[in-house]
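Dear support,

I submitted the protein below through the web form. The confirmation email said the job was done, but the results page showed an empty box. After a refresh the structure appeared. I'm attaching both so you can tell me whether what I see now is the final result or a partial one.
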Amino acid sequence: MALDRRLSRVSKILVDADDIGFPDAEARLKALTLEIAIGPQATSPVAHAAILTAVSVGSRTFAGGVKVTGSLDLPLKSCLPLAAKTIGGAARLVGARTFDGPPRQRIEIGMGAENAVEGALFPWWSGWRAGVDAHPRTGSDAGHNPLTGIAAGAMAVGAAFDAERGLKVTTDREIDLWPVSETETPPDFAEVFLPGALWMIGLGNLGQAYIWALASLPYEDPQKLELVLQDRDRISEDNWGTSVLVHEEVFGQLKTKAAEAFTTARGFNVRRVDRRLLQNDRLEDDDPRMALSGVDRVEARKGMASTGFDCIIDAGLGRTADQADRFRVTVFDQHSPIDRHFAKQEDEPKDEKILERDTYKELEADIGRCGASEIGGASTAVPYVSALAAAMAVARLIAVVSNCPCPENEVGRVSNLSKRRKAPSRSFSARGASHAGHPTT
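What the results page shows now:
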């Protein structure tokens, strides 16, 4: 059986955690199917953000197919640059397709309690909070904040995937994208400011998830968002299973080019930098002073400290199978610089001992030692984790440009959100931050 490189980083989770071979891992993934049932009440931008996110990230983990059923002719309410007029048409553009037989898992959005199917998962949202439950629940708001839809859709896929892996699933998962103390009230989504200038560093799975979240935001004038997109890598088959902007027709393209196409279609003002950020790079006077970091190397993060950014929002993901659903979001400024935070950390060397395992010896016989070493040393990744981390990171970005305090650091696991850890909220120094006005709602 030839290795399906599109699924290699997701397959690696099953290989390393369950001690099975890549053929068995791929067979398991390709047997997974997911139905997303759309009800007549799924009429808000948040509901459509949840549906489209669940389809996009779900199709890369439920490799047997994700199909959408129900009220597919609802008019599309999404800012994503998709050439569709209905939610069903948009879902097909981001990965929905049909499959035979009953689904292994089912997510219901906007169906109503009277039509709920037992065993389904039910995303919900309210203000800056989002979650997934095992039962329909009242309390979702009118749905103006698409970040909560992204978070809810991602969490629902994560719960469904955990259930298929036979893991203990807590179906009362929820997260607050704008945590405040008991005496405070978070601002309404209509009251915040949207970012006006950003330097995006790293356009892999996290960077593309950032773009998905930013493109979902309802800008009154998208041209007011200036984006600098920086990366030097090209899209490979391995990126398909982890990155929401990757489709087969873009294999071999620069990541910046694929990101440019999507963000330009959204109407953003875009520049590309097709190389790595170097330690001696310095911002010019009119460059964005805020950065979103999607890199996966410690040394790359340290190098950002001297570039001249006033504020850097950085996310990190778990690299190994037992940490595949772990995420971290941290905000850095002059009072808490990124190089100080990572001063005592180093990039872990590639573990060549992994090639001594029978699974990787079999893989080596199939694709050669270099290919086996590349896959063995690669990090595991599932796109629903990136989507959730991106929603949180963009919420932090909005807080900073809105001059509101937010946690400096938050760490958690998608499978156990009740035990995530976050630092106290504080205000951040971002003199060069610019905004593009309030959201249109």
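Response: this is the final, complete result; the empty box was a page-load delay. The mean pLDDT is 92.
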